[in-house]
Structure formats: structure tokens, C-alpha cells
Write a structure and sequence with these properties.
The complex is a heterodimer of chains A (915) and B (421). By secondary structure, chain A is of the alpha/beta class. Chain A is built from 38 helices and 14 strands. The chains are: A alpha/beta (915), B alpha/beta (421). Chains A and B meet through helix 1, helix 4, strand 2, helix 8 and helix 9 of A and helix 1, helix 3, helix 4, helix 7 and strand 7 of B.
Chain lengths: 915, 421
């Protein structure tokens, strides 16, 4: 034990530095809702400013520190507030890209100004020369002061957030700036103050760390990445827990290092520890604790889908142009630049499938590429397999790795998937890359041969082009096929597709497997281009995973064009060969990444151009419905269920959110063959009840059954396949899919289900069934004329009808409709009522209807439940409800003018309906 | 309209940035070269082209030394020595910026566009990513960084002149044993697997009685070096071998000093340059190490000539193994061409260089080479010798070999050789 004591002291010193970094990270996340991957870049800016003032200009260190922290820090804060204002409502991918853009910007600028090597900064903190001995370890007094400063700052921040009005306002602005504004608190001023504090703190951290770690453009970024685990321990919200977590990590690292010295087989474990902890926390923390800081996100901009003829012509042109490259490109450009453009295209297709189609932000693509390269070398060189087989097997090896990485993606979303995948990528890099079985023991790395039939640069280029063409075809098939639609659904309307019958787990596993496999093949081909694969190669570095996602964000166009365009950017350094080129490019990438992220994505095709292309190459007017384009007179007949059974039965339902009881003792019955109403004031718990029925939240008590079969414990997709469908109060449509494709999801999601094959392929019978169900549902809702419009271009009323049609296309016995007429005008409401009556009568389904249009409910429903404050207030026939004093009081409140006038109001409402 | 202006502005900014980037110049020195000492015969005819791949990244100045030395040597040879076999010499130097793509592109440019007669690869990257290409083109790779070269797998176009694998990695044990040390610990960089492999290799070559106490990985982005130093010093080694870059060494050493280490720090290869040695000794550390190429401080005439030329033509050159290695490579080339190359009326191409080098036998360049080098027509031989040194009163001094020197020299040019256990 005494041998451990010095390492314990050393570990606490390290941990305090992690704590300083992690505290700043959590501070900015709490106050902005943005997890700032570029926090280290902000600290680096402060450090560079201090260096310029203290070392270059010779100012006293307190003056230099004061300027860097109190002047430059606030200026950075104002800039960051401006950026974050636009970033905060964007989707996770854009928030990640925007903050990663900061890293590139600072890396490029810092290298240009001060070089890439680490600058050793003269000690300036007081107490540097004073040595203190603690438990056998000599520590500089300045290190103790840094640790003490970190502790004091943590205490101050904790007190501010917990006990001051300012702290409450800071948190409120993140959650709901509009509401805060209504309370008379200016959210912009609060946010600015928060960013000023955060950036000043970042600047201070960078300066305090200077004498310990030195100064270079990326050092602090890498250091702070190691602190992500500490932030995760604090669940990205508790500053004191984050700090304690950081100390624990520092301690654990140091103790492990002690054992690594004695047991060489453990080498590298201490370095991998922060990332192991990060991944574990992402896996075990209850989902309810990992709540994103901001819940609402902007809808993605609609990408234009060009006419088929145009796309085919473009494919031929682009592939043809790429095929001519060896004829005119110089030898120094062909390999590596043009060849790298092709391998980059492959890896971009892989990443694009995850990020752009499935909406999953993955930051470990480079690790898949590395695994593929190593596997290929082992198969081709050590096992002597044929070259092509070795490449394909390298792709296969990555499949289970992809499935493994999908595990956090199954239970997490958004930022937390990004962090988990980043942790995985860093873990692989810091631990696995160093093992002999990966890149070998020598700096030369692994031999990566070319095939005998493509040894020359030209031949190898054509081989790569062949791989790209095959990949383009495969990815086009995926995008246009069932899996592509399910992925888009999962990205744009995740709750909807789950409640329509799709198992998102299987979908996520599949997409990760495909992405990992293609990235692995890209990694193998890239290595074969160079002839070697090394651990230090940029292509396999975790930093490259960040660069790839930034580049992916900048390029416009849909798949696969964004991948080809992203690939072609790789040739730029070959064309512009100045020594500053890489750094200038990083600066430009960084700036454009931030701008693009603030705008929520690259610009879409201008309208004028769209009209031009559609006029020239437009497809003939389509008559079919559904993605299969089968004619409306589909061969299959949509057979709806036999609709026998008790319908939906809810008994004793209780749902809690933390200490708050949202609904209690809810009993209701929505039988088949009738419309049952569920009404109540705002906040009564109607949607919560719906969510409990469809499995989107877990009740504490009670049962839910459908046609006598208990649904308790079933997942949402299982409930959907059992026959329970729904719509949403806040509509969940796939904006980029057409109306027909959205409606088809109602049937197709349950067809896809949870099977591997069914997620990819639809049988001819399934296709026909889907098409027929879609046609029928669109006809019922009167939206056939909208079939080929993108859902994102519709009005609110039209979107409501599409969502209803989607529910009607599905094989459901009971439909939960949550305010489906919201946004419809009076005539549309009448038509809507007629649809429901028809559906109930013809199909025998049961409907449980939540509506604020009381007249509609009284007219349509055979039975009505009334909720208030989370409990069942009343239930009965429409006449009973109309006459109920309790219902009147609940709707009109206690301070109604008079009992007679409230009754008059209700009567007038119903008389309007009756007449 | 406003949006259009923004787009135009963005495009203009990008274009300007690209132009500035293309015009970006490398960092240069501040001292003015003095010029030639005397004027030799003017070389005529087609220039002899030599390709040089080097790495100059802002902040990593030691790699830039090869270009500066090459430029100085070229001016000296053309101005004062009548060229090579009467031909003027042209060195086409390409900075790969430690970037794999640039390195690969530069290899092809040198071979297929510039049609150089030989290539010097003074960059950590080039050999590993370009070896198979140069072999397929039969392009002579003369000198350069050889620590990645495994002679059992290298092509016959490779002519290493400094320590090859595994001798380059094992070299520090010579400095330890010749300075009287009996034990050592290794601080290995955490980012590159070969750093830790070096520790295993050292153990295989350590002379009898010299033992390894521990190997600790040290990262560039470590928050603290206290833990690694505790791991290094706890076995009370006589020396800590720094298999690290210069900047990390300069952060680690003061911490290990603080934790009570009083032994020597062993530097090697590119971290054994003058700037790093000065920084470490300035921090109070006792430094020993090995030079893969002749010591720049040697008083012997060939080394003095080197310093004279550098002082005259490139006085800002950072001194270290990269600088001296480039010099000895070029001097061997000049001597080989003079002795075995084509006459002044014939062009010097890759084939001529291969022919000339195939006739080099037991050459030491008067002590500038670590051992007598013989290049036959087959795969190259290992280079197993280095120059161990110590630093006294902040001045480096070559450690005398145990037994005969590798290159038959005495004094500062005497090399020492490794033998596997």
C-alpha cells in the first residue's frame, strides 16, 4: 500500500486537471445546451493570447492573464453566444459539427502563427520553485494551487447554480427560452452572461495548464477529450460530481500505471481508462438521466430529389469523368490524390448512411477503417488469401464490431451516441493500435499489397473506381429500398416508426454493420494504395473521424453525390501545394463548418435550377402510390383484421416522472367498432396516457391490454404489431419522404419488424399489400393528389391528414388519435369526422380520440372519458358529459361567472353541433 | 441580393486564401550566408538531379536541416568543387509536411516528372510509404533515415548509411554501457507502437550487466508527468532512455528531476539534436545519447569541412543527426560518382548511380560513416554502428568505444557497434 501512496498523490494532481477541464465542459453544456467539443480550442485561444502577451511582448504574467481572461474571454463569450444562438435549435449533427469546426479553426491558425510543435512555457505561477513533499511525492506548490483553484471554482459554480436566481435563470434559458422571456427575463442577456463566464473560465483553464502541459494547437483539445468521462460521471449536469469523478479517474489512471510498470501485459490500460469509463457510463446510465439539454430541434431542410433521368445522366457523366482521370492527371496527382478521392468517397458513403440517412452521429469511422486495414493485411499477407477475398473478408470482420458499437446507439440518441462512438474510437486508437497484432511492432506498420492484376497506379485506380461504382449501386439500392425508408423514418420520426411496428434496435444494428463494413473496406483499399498501413496514418486517426464529419456536413446534395464531392475535395492539397495549404484549409473548413452548422445544413438546390431540371428531365406524371410505384389497382387486396375482441383496456394506470405523478388510477376502455373520446384541459395527462398505452413511457402501475392480450412489458413496436396504432399531438412525419412514402410506412414499418431480412427486402406480396393499403388510405383521406409531394412542404392541415392516412394504412385494431383535427378548418374537420365514421363502420376498428374540439367529440364519440390533473374526472355518454357539473368546472375553472352561464356555454356549444 | 454578395464574398475569401497558401514560404533563418571561400571550375552539361524528401513542419525544425544542408552542399559543390563529374548538381527538395499523401505524391513527382538519378529520404514517413514504389522503379534510395529499413526485406535499390532496424532502436544501450551505467528505464512515447518495441529491442542488445528496470508510456497530451516519472524512477535506474519527441522530453525531464532522479537521460536519433540537448542540459539534466550520423562537434578535418560549408552557406542550420546524415550522404554520392560514375560527357541517371554504388567497398568517408560500407548488387547490409556521446560542461563529447571502433577512427569520429546477445 505504501508503494501506492505516491501514485495516489500523483493521481489526484492529474485528476484535478481533468476536473478543471471537465467542469468547464459541463458549465457550457448546462448554460448553452451545446456540448462543446471545441472547448479545448477555446482554452487554447486563451492560452495563445497569454503566450503572446507574456512571452512575446514580455508583459507581467498577472497583466497578461487578466487581459486573456477578463478581456479576451468575454469577447470569445460574445462570439460563442452569437454562434450558439443559431446552433442550439439545430439537430445534434450540426451542433457537433459546429463545435468541431472550432477545433479545426484553432488548429490551423495556431499552427500558422506558432508552429505545430509544443511550446514549453516558462513557469510563471507563484510557488513554482517551492517544492512540497506529500507521501513520498514531490509536488510543486503551483500544482497544489492549480488544484485548489479548481476546487474553489467548482464550489463557486455549484453555489451559483444551486442557490442563486441567476443560476436558476441560466438553467431555465436552456430549457425554454421563450417561457423565460415571458417571465420578463431576457434570454439573450442570460445566455451572453453564461457564455462569457464559460469562455473566461476556458481561457483561465488554458492558462493554468500552460506550465504543466505546454502549448500547441491541439494539445488542450486532446486533454479535454480525456475529461469527457468525468463529465459523463456528472451526467453532464452536476459540477461537483463531475469534479469528484475527474479526481477518481486521475486516481485510477495513476494506480493502473503503477501496475503497468510491474506487469507489461497491462500496458496501455491506464490510457484507455477514461474512454472505457465514458462508454460504460453511456451504457449503464438510465436513459431518463441522459436527457438532452434542449428537446426541440429544427426540422432538417428538405433536400431536392432530382428526376430519375437526370440522376442517371449524372451518374454516367460523373463516373465517366472519373474514368478518364488516369489519362490526363499527372503521376503525382493520380496516386495518392485521385486514388484517395475514391477511398474517401467510399468512407463518406459509409458515414453518410449513418449521419445523413439514419440521423446517427458516429465519431468512430476511422477506427472501422483501421480494423479493416489490419484484417486485410492479416488475410492477404499472413494467411496468403487471394486479394479480393481478403478485402471482402476485411469488410466482414468489421460487421460484429459495428454491431458492438450499435449497442449504445440502441439505447441512446443524439449527443450521447456521438460521445459513446467517440469514446469507442479513442479507446481503439489509444489501446488497440498499440498492440502488435494491429499495426505491428515497428513504425513501418503492416504491409498492404496490391493485387497482381493492378500493381501499377493506373490499374489500381481503376480497381478503386470499380469498388466505388459497386458501392454507389449498393447504396442507391439501400436508399431507395425498405431499409433506406426505415432509416429515414428512424432519423426524422423515430417515435412514429417505432409505434408503427419497426424495431429500431435491429435497424440501428444493421446500419452500423453496413457502415462499419464499408469503412473497413475503404481502410483496406487506402492502405493498399500506400503499400503500408501505420498506426500514425492520418486516415486511421480518431481526429480524422471528426474531420470526416465536418467535411460531410459541408458538402451539399443528396446521396451519393455528397460522398463523391467530399471525396474530390481530397485533391485540393495536391493542386495547391504551398506549405501553408493544410493549415489554411483547416481554417477554412473550420469557418465554413461553423457557418453551415449555424444554418442547419448546406444550402439546398435553388428553386430556379430545380424547375429547370424538372422541366428538362422531369418524370412522367405518376399514377402509382407507394414507393414500389405499383399501379393503384394493385393485385393485393388489403385485408384488415377480423376485428374481434375487447379493444383497448387500461386498468389502474399510474405514470410518474421523477417525483411527479402524471397520471393515476386511470381506467378506460376503447372497444372495437366505435369512437371513444378522451378529453380534458391542457396538462390533464391525456398524451401521457396515450404514451403509456403505446409503450413510449413505462407506467409504475396498471395494465394495458388489447383484445384481451396484455401489452404490459411490450415494446412500442411489439404493441404496434399486436394491433395498436396512433398519431401524435406534435406531428411526426418523415419530412424528406413523399406523402405516399409516409403513408406506406404505416404498413411497411410492421412488415419490416425486427427481422434482418425483412428490414432489407419486401416480398412481392408485401409490396403489393403495402401499395394497396397506401392507395386506400390516401383515398380515404382525400390526399391522393399530394402523393408525390415531400411531406416537409405541406401545410399543417395536410400534414394532419397524412399522419391519419399513415395510421389508417397500418394493420391496426385500435387507433389512438391525439388531436388529429388540430390545424384543420371547419370543413376539413367535417370531412375528417366522416373519415373516422367510415373507418369505424367499414373496418370495425376502435378509436380512442383526444380532442380539444368538444363539439367534434360530442358528435363523434359513443363514449367519453374526461381527465383532469392526471386523474379520471368523469366518463359517460356525450349527453352525460354535456350535463356534468364536474366537467363544466374542470373546463371553465372554479372562478366561472355563474353556474348558469357555464352551462349555457356548454349548451351553446352542443347546440351548434346539433344544428 | 445580400445572399449573393455573401456567396461572392465567401468565394473571394477562399480564392485569396488558396493563393496565399500556395505562396506560403517555409520558415527560414536569420543569418546571412557568407558565400563561397573560393571559386572552383564552372560545372557544365546536364545537371545531376538528386531528389530530397524532407519534413518541415512549423515547429519541428530538426527535420528542416536536411534541406538547408542540401542547399549548402549544392552551392559549395557547384561554386567551389566543379560540380559532380563536371556536371552541376541540382537538388529537388520536396517537403512532405509529415503527410502521407504528400510523401507519396512527391515520390512520383521526383521519379516520373523530375527524372532524378537518386532520392534521399530524410523523413520519418517516406521509406515506409514509398519503399515498394521506389523498388518498382529501381530508384536508388541513398542514405536517409534508415531506422525503418529491415535489410532482410529491403530491395537492392536501398543504400542505408545509418543504423537500420533493429540496431537503430537498440543504440541507446551503447551510450549507457559506455558511460558506465548498469541499468535503465525507458520512457516510450504512447502514440506510436514502435516506441515500446524499442524497449524490447534494447533488452536484446544490452551488453552483459546492463539491465532494464521498467518501461513507461508517456503521452504528448498527458495532464501530468508525475505518475510516469514515479514509474520510471522507482527502480533507481542509472539512465532513463527518452524514446520521445523533443517537446515531450522537455516536459518530462524537469518532473523526473523533481522526483529525485539524478542519473542520465539518453537521447537518440532526431531528439539528439543540438537544440534539444541544450534545452535538457539547461534544465540541469545529465545527458548522454547516440548519434546515427557523424557528430557535428568532431574536430577531425571532414567534420570541420562540414561546419565550414554550413557556416558559409546555411549558418542557421539546426545541428543534429539529420544535418550530418544529409552531408555524409551527399559526400558519398560525390565520391562514388567521381570514382565509378560516368564521365562528364554522359548523363548521370538512376542506372549510373546503381552501377557506381555497386562498386563501393569498405568505404568510411574518412570517418564520416559509422562503419565501412559495401554496397553490392544484392540486398543491403545492416548498419550496426553509431556514435555514443556524453555532454560535459554543456558540450557533447563522443564516448570511446569498448574495443575497436566501428569505422577505424579515433577521437570524436570513432564509432561503436552493437552486437546481439
Amino acid at each position: 500500500m505504501t508503494q501506492l501512496l505516491p501514485f495516489i498523490v500523483a493521481g489526484l494532481a492529474t485528476g484535478s486537471i481533468y476536473g478543471l477541464a471537465a467542469t468547464g465542459l459541463v458549465l457550457t453544456y448546462k448554460t448553452s445546451g451545446i456540448f462543446n467539443f471545441g472547448y479545448g480550442a477555446l482554452a487554447t485561444i486563451g492560452a495563445y493570447v497569454f503566450y503572446a502577451l507574456f512571452v512575446d511582448l514580455g508583459l507581467d504574467w498577472p497583466v497578461a492573464m487578466a487581459i486573456a481572461v477578463l478581456v479576451v474571454g468575454p469577447l470569445m463569450g460574445l462570439v460563442m453566444e452569437f454562434i450558439s444562438r443559431s446552433l442550439a435549435p439545430q439537430r445534434t449533427a450540426w451542433k457537433v459539427v459546429g463545435t468541431v469546426g472550432l477545433i479545426l479553426l484553432v488548429q490551423g491558425a495556431g499552427t500558422l502563427l506558432y508552429g505545430a510543435d509544443t511550446l514549453i512555457v516558462p513557469q510563471f505561477l507563484p510557488g513554482t520553485l517551492t517544492i512540497v513533499q506529500i507521501l513520498g511525492v514531490k509536488v510543486r506548490l503551483s500544482q497544489i494551487l492549480v488544484a485548489a483553484a479548481a476546487l474553489v471554482i467548482v464550489v463557486i459554480l455549484y453555489v451559483v447554480f444551486r442557490f442563486t436566481r441567476f443560476g436558476v435563470r441560466l438553467r431555465a434559458v436552456v430549457q425554454n427560452p421563450e417561457l423565460t422571456d415571458l417571465q420578463g427575463v431576457n434570454p439573450v442577456m442570460i445566455r451572453r452572461a453564461a457564455w462569457i463566464i464559460g469562455c473566461s473560465f476556458a481561457s483561465l483553464s488554458g492558462i493554468l495548464l500552460l506550465p504543466i502541459v505546454g502549448l500547441d494547437p491541439l494539445l488542450l483539445t486532446f486533454l479535454i477529450v480525456q475529461s469527457f468521462a468525468a463529465a459523463a460521471i456528472g451526467r453532464f449536469s452536476s459540477i461537483p460530481v463531475t469534479f469528484v469523478g475527474a479526481l477518481a479517474i486521475g486516481l485510477a489512471e495513476s494506480i493502473l500505471l503503477r501496475y503497468e510498470v510491474a506487469l507489461p501485459d497491462l500496458a496501455g490500460v491506464s490510457r484507455a481508462l477514461p474512454f472505457v469509463i465514458l462508454i460504460l457510463i453511456m451504457l449503464v446510465t438510465p436513459r431518463s438521466k441522459l436527457v438532452p439539454a434542449t428537446v426541440s430541434e429544427n426540422r432538417p431542410a428538405l433536400q431536392w430529389h432530382g428526376p430519375t433521368k437526370m440522376r442517371i445522366a449524372a451518374y454516367i457523366l460523373v463516373v465517366g469523368a472519373l474514368a478518364t482521370v488516369p489519362l490526363w492527371a499527372s503521376s503525382r496527382m493520380l496516386v495518392p490524390y485521385w486514388a484517395s478521392a475514391l477511398t474517401t468517397t467510399l468512407i463518406m458513403l459509409s458515414l453518410g448512411l449513418l449521419v445523413r440517412t439514419a440521423g446517427i452521429v458516429s465519431l468512430c469511422t476511422a477506427a472501422f477503417a483501421a480494423i479493416g486495414a489490419v484484417a486485410f493485411s492479416q488475410f492477404a499477407v499472413e494467411a496468403g488469401m487471394p486479394w479480393l477475398l481478403a478485402v471482402l473478408l476485411a469488410g466482414v470482420v468489421a460487421v460484429p464490431i459495428g454491431a458492438l458499437v450499435a449497442i449504445p446507439a440502441i439505447r441512446l440518441s443524439g449527443l450521447f451516441v456521438a460521445l459513446a462512438t467517440l469514446g469507442f474510437g479513442l479507446l481503439v486508437e489509444r489501446f488497440l493500435y498499440k498492440q502488435d497484432f494491429m499495426f505491428g511492432p515497428l513504425a513501418a506498420g503492416r504491409a498492404m499489397p496490391r493485387p497482381g492484376f493492378a500493381l501499377s497506379d493506373q490499374a489500381f485506380y481503376y480497381l478503386l473506381l470499380g469498388f466505388v461504382v459497386v458501392a454507389l449501386v449498393v447504396f442507391a439500392a439501400i436508399q431507395r429500398g425498405r431499409l433506406g425508408r426505415m432509416l429515414l423514418g428512424m432519423s426524422e420520426a423515430p417515435r412514429a416508426v417505432t409505434t408503427l411496428g419497426l424495431s429500431p434496435r435491429m435497424t440501428r444494428v444493421l446500419v452500423f454493420c453496413i457502415a462499419a463494413s464499408v469503412a473497413a473496406i475503404a481502410g483496406a483499399l487506402n492502405g493498399a494504395m500506400f503499400g503500408r498501413a501505420q498506426a500514425t496514418s492520418t486516415f486511421y486517426s480518431s481526429f480524422n473521424s471528426l474531420v470526416l464529419i465536418v467535411v460531410l456536413s459541408l458538402v451539399p446534395f443528396r446521396a451519393p453525390w455528397f460522398a463523391i464531392l467530399a471525396g474530390v475535395t481530397v485533391i485540393v492539397p495536391g493542386l495547391v501545394t504551398g506549405e501553408s495549404t493544410p493549415y489554411v484549409m483547416n481554417i477554412l473548413f473550420g469557418v465554413f463548418a461553423i457557418m453551415t452548422a449555424m444554418a442547419g445544413g448546406p444550402p439546398t438546390m435553388p428553386m430556379r435550377l430545380r424547375r429547370f431540371f424538372e422541366a428538362r428531365f422531369g418524370d412522367k406524371k405518376k399514377t402509382g402510390a407507394g414507393p414500389s410505384e405499383e399501379p393503384a389497382s394493385a393485385q393485393a387486396v388489403v385485408t384488415h383484421r377480423t376485428h374481434q375482441g375487447a379493444g383497448l383496456e387500461v386498468s389502474g394506470l399510474e405514470v410518474r416522472f421523477g417525483g411527479l405523478v402524471a397520471v393515476r388510477d386511470i381506467d378506460l376502455h376503447a372497444p372495437l367498432g366505435q369512437v371513444t373520446g378522451l378529453i380534458g384541459p391542457n396538462g390533464a395527462g391525456k398524451t401521457t396516457t396515450f404514451n403509456a398505452c403505446s409503450g413510449l413511457n413505462k407506467p409504475v402501475k396498471g395494465t394495458v391490454s388489447l383484445n384481451g392480450e396484455s401489452l404490459t412489458g411490450h415494446s412500442p413496436h411489439q404493441r404496434a404489431r399486436a394491433g395498436l396504432g396512433r398519431t401524435f399531438q406534435i406531428m411526426e412525419l418523415c419530412e424528406s419522404l413523399t406523402v405516399a412514402e409516409n403513408v406506406a410506412l404505416g404498413r411497411e414499418a410492421s412488415q419490416a419488424g425486427s427481422g434482418i431480412i425483412t428490414q432489407f427486402f419486401a416480398s412481392p406480396h408485401e409490396r403489393a399489400l403495402r401499395s394497396a393499403a397506401t392507395t386506400e388510405a390516401m383515398r380515404l383521406c382525400g390526399i391522393e393528389h399530394l402523393a408525390h409531394r415531400q411531406a416537409g412542404s405541406l401545410s399543417t392541415g395536410e400534414r394532419r391528414l397524412v399522419e391519419l392516412a399513415r395510421a389508417l394504412a397500418g394493420p391496426f385494431d385500435v387507433l389512438l388519435l391525439d388531436e388529429p383535427s388540430s390545424g384543420l378548418d371547419s370543413s376539413e374537420t367535417q370531412e375528417f369526422a366522416a373519415i373516422l365514421r367510415h373507418v369505424v363502420k367499414e373496418r370495425g376498428v376502435g378509436i380512442l380520440l383526444v380532442e380539444h374540439d368538444v363539439a367534434l367529440v360530442l358528435d363523434l364519440c359513443a363514449y367519453i372519458y374526461v381527465m383532469d390533473s392526471g386523474q379520471m374526472l368523469f366518463h359517460g355518454t356525450p349527453a352525460d358529459v354535456r350535463d356534468s357539473r364536474e366537467v363544466q368546472e374542470a373546463y371553465l375553472g372554479e372562478q366561472r361567472p355563474s353556474a348558469e352561464s357555464s352551462q349555457d356555454h356548454l349548451h351553446q356549444t352542443t347546440q351548434g353541433v346539433e344544428s | 441580393m445580400i445572399r449573393k454578395r455573401k456567396v461572392v464574398g465567401a468565394v473571394a475569401a477562399v480564392t485569396l486564401a488558396m493563393v496565399l497558401a500556395a505562396c506560403g514560404s517555409s520558415t527560414g533563418g536569420t543569418k546571412r550566408p557568407a558565400g563561397p571561400a573560393s571559386q572552383g571550375p564552372t560545372p557544365t552539361g546536364d545537371p545531376v538531379k538528386i531528389g530530397l524528401q524532407y519534413s518541415e513542419v512549423p515547429g519541428f525544425q530538426q527535420f528542416a536541416a536536411s534541406k538547408q544542408v542540401a542547399d549548402a552542399w549544392t552551392q559549395w559543390v557547384n561554386n567551389e568543387m566543379g560540380g559532380v563529374n563536371g556536371h552541376p548538381v541540382e537538388i529537388i527538395a520536396i517537403n512532405d509536411q509529415l503527410n502521407g499523401d504528400t510523401s507519396v505524391a512527391s515520390a512520383r513527382q521526383l521519379v516520373e516528372q523530375d527524372h532524378v538519378a537518386a532520392v534521399i529520404s530524410q523523413t520519418p514517413l517516406s521509406y515506409s510509404v514509398n519503399a515498394s514504389y521506389f523498388a518498382s522503379q529501381k530508384m536508388p534510395l541513398i542514405g536517409g533515415i534508415a531506422s525503418d529499413i529491415d535489410v532482410t526485406k529491403a530491395g537492392s535499390n536501398v543504400y542505408p548509411m545509418e543504423g537500420t532496424t533493429p540496431y537503430a532502436q537498440a543504440a541507446p544501450v551503447l551510450a549507457i554501457s559506455q558511460s558506465g551505467g548498469r541499468s535503465y528505464a525507458v520512457a516510450a512515447c504512447a502514440e506510436v507502437p514502435s516506441c515500446t518495441t524499442s524497449a524490447d529491442i534494447m533488452a536484446k542488445f544490452a551488453p552483459a550487466g546492463v539491465t532494464s528496470r521498467s518501461t513507461v508510456r508517456v503521452g504528448t497530451a498527458d495532464a501530468s508527468y508525475t505518475g510516469p516519472c514515479l514509474g520510471l524512477v522507482q527502480g533507481a535506474p542509472d539512465a532513463i532512455v527518452l524514446v520521445l519527441g523533443g517537446a515531450v522530453s522537455q516536459k518530462l525531464v524537469p518532473e523526473c528531476q523533481l522526483q529525485g532522479f539524478t542519473g542520465s537521460y539518453v537521447v537518440q536519433a532526431n531528439s539528439a539534436d543540438k537544440a534539444n540537448i541544450d534545452a535538457l542540459t539547461g534544465a540541469g539534466a545529465s545527458v548522454i545519447g547516440t548519434q546515427s550520423n557523424f557528430p557535428w562537434w568532431a574536430d577531425a578535418e571532414p567534420a570541420q569541412r562540414f561546419r565550414d560549408v554550413i557556416d558559409r552557406y546555411a549558418p542557421d542550420t539546426p545541428m543534429g543527426s539529420t544535418a550530418t546524415g544529409t552531408w555524409s550522404t551527399l559526400e558519398l554520392f560525390r565520391k562514388a560518382m567521381k570514382a565509378h560514375g560516368p564521365g562528364a560527357d554522359k548523363a548521370v541517371d538512376a542506372a549510373a548511380v546503381r552501377d557506381a554504388y555497386a562498386q563501393i567497398k569498405d568505404e568510411t568517408l574518412d570517418g564520416l560513416l559509422p562503419q565501412p560500407l559495401t554496397f553490392g548488387a544484392n540486398t543491403p547490409s545492416d548498419v550496426t554502428c553509431v556514435w555514443p556521446f556524453t555532454v560535459e560542461n554543456r558540450k557533447p563529447k563522443t564516448l570511446a568505444p569498448h574495443g575497436d571502433s566501428g569505422n577505424g577512427q579515433t577521437g570524436d569520429l570513432a564509432s561503436s557497434c552493437l552486437h546481439a546477445n
